[in-house]
Amino acid sequence: METWAWLIAYLLGFALLQLYLYRYFMNGSSTTDTSTTNATPGFEGGAPVESGQGSTELPEDTVACKECGAHNESHSTFTFCKHCGARL
Fold first, then answer.
1. Relative to the CA of 83, which of 8, 21, 37, 77 has its CA 20 to 30 Å away?
2. Which among 34, 31, 45, 50 has a CA at the least distance from the CA of 73?
3. Are the C-beta atoms of 27 and 52 separated by less than 8 Å?
4. What tens digit of pLDDT does each residue of 41-52 get?
């Protein structure tokens, strides 16, 4: 009988963990926090803009992120920003 009690406790704990993880990721708290540091050192995201250029227009094949402003490739398979991970 003790084995059944441990099995039920394990399954209940596992289900609660899954519910917590589901709610955590569905609330968007993993991508909306902009205070996190960049995972790749030295990478600032997007295409570099030369200081003498003076123009802020994007090339035709890039899309600016709404959250951080980084330039990302304009391709239908890319739905997240390379810099901050927000949805484009």
1. 21
2. 45
3. no
4. 545 554 444 444
